[in-house]
Design a protein that fits this description.
This protein has one domain. 42% of the residues lie in helices and 0% in strands.
Length: 115
């Protein structure tokens, strides 16, 4: 088995104990998140979920599904936030039709043991 994982530039940054205030530190991204996740508690849980992945590099055994009207910013978040954070191979957009069978290319390419 070969591990082709390559950490992104963000994963190579040194860990700190610094607390980041999303409203002040990344206001444009936070406004997008408000549009996608209107409830504060859910938005906070999502940010903590992302932080957990970046800090531990372990899979969380959960997934977030974003379902909203066209133009809400789902593709924007995927292309310009999640892919740069985690890498192109680790972030994938999946449509309902692609999940119709348990034997599909998305599942066969997944490594369930490591991120």
């Amino acid at each position: 088995m070969f591990n082709f994982f390559t950490p992104t530039e963000y994963m190579k940054l040194n860990k700190t104990e610094e607390f980041l205030n999303p409203v002040k530190e990344f206001p444009h991204i936070y406004r997008l998140l408000i549009n996608l996740i209107p409830k504060y508690k859910e938005r906070k849980r999502f940010l903590n979920w992302l932080a957990g992945i970046l800090q531990t590099r372990m899979k969380q055994q959960t997934a977030w599904v974003f379902k909203s009207d066209q133009g809400a910013g789902k593709n924007l978040m995927l292309s310009f936030i999640l892919k740069p954070l985690f890498g192109n191979k680790q972030v994938t957009m999946v449509n309902d039709s692609q999940l119709a069978s348990e034997f599909n290319p998305l599942v066969t390419e997944c490594d369930t043991n490591s991120l």
